[in-house]
Amino acid sequence: MTKQPLKTKLLNATTDNIKTVVEALKQGDVVGLPTETVYGLAGNALRDESIAKIFLFKSRPSFDPLIVHVPETLTSCQALADAEIINLMAMSQPQISTCDKLIQLFWPGPLTLIFPKHERISDLVTSSLPTVGLRSPSHPVAQQVLKLSGLPLAAPSANQFGRISPTKSQHVIEELGEFLNYCLEGGECSVGLESTIATVNLQGEVSVLRPGGVSLEALESCLEKSFRGLHTELGLPSVASHSPMAPGLLESHYAPKKQMFRLETRFQEFDFKWLKENFAGLKAENEELSLLSPFPLSAEIHRRALKNFNRVNFHYLAEDENDSLTAAHTLFSKLRELDSNPSALILCELPQSDKALWPAIRDRLTRASKKWSL
Fold first, then answer.
1. Alpha carbons 370 and 349: distance in angstroms, whole number
2. What's the mean pLDDT in 112-131?
3. 0.85 exceeded by the pTM?
């Protein structure tokens, strides 16, 4: 298929431009929208035409549900029900109390909660599931659009399905510029990593389906015994049947186009000589190798890698374990950089820490790569 010329107008977030974008949304168009996590591809969650465009432009499978964004003025389950976004009658009182607590503590912000959906929400949004993921973004531009439009907005990441999420407006244009009429400029995303997705059961207990911009520690601190932790088994069995219960749970996601493998060990134990002798794509003398690690690699690892390869690119996400915010902010931009450099292969080492945002970073790297096995 011949790639069409880019048509997206990148608009500064002035009052007039926001009004232009809101009018486009009301007419069924979809737009690039900045949030604090990543740039979203936003469309009216009440309109099938808009949601169909999102799936079409992203080449996203229809079985993968979308997150819906709401204004910060909807600060309780009752307010969401009054706005005809959730079905309050399908929720227990403990469930409502816990959801209200989480909304008060973490909205607006990078936390998505799973609710029984109101019938007004398009079934295309939820992939025909009876539930919908909701969050209120903290980015001021997103909030202005939500408040002025009066619409709940479905807004998955504004990139081709399964590829690296966009953290700058230019990424949106590179990925979807042939389809979109408008993208609002909101600067580089402050978090740079998608939201944490959590579900609350009838007893008011909280399980995390996808780690993200709100840490597991922050949730545990406020929920105490009601926090059941990270339960990937709630999402992963549904992957096998191609019906995930929330976005971002597919085995392959956030991936660069070139080959990327994750190590089960650390680079400290990795056999670069074996790689040189056995990996066909790296046998030529001029082939480059890219290494991605959570923190700077030692001089000894540099020496061993360069002993076997003439060209090695060394990349890392943060200076040390205490700076997961920088690592999260850097991750997707770093993957785009690696995808565009001339290396034949990317090898990554997964962060091992379970603190702060490292579990979310490990999750994204795992889904973006294939397991390396000798």
1. 12
2. 96
3. yes
Angle between helices 93-106 and 216-223 (to 10 degrees): 130
- Alpha carbon distance 127, 125 (integer Å): 6
User: 261 φ, ψ to 5°?
Assistant: -120, 145
The CA-CA-CA angle for residues 37, 43, 48, to 5°, reads 140
Judging by beta carbons within 10 Å of its beta carbon (0-12, 13-18, 19+), is residue 322 exposed, middle or buried?
A: exposed
**pLDDT tens-digit readout, 174-206:** 999 999 999 999 999 999 999 999 999 999 999
Tens digits of residue pLDDT in 238-268: 343 455 667 777 767 788 999 999 998 899 9
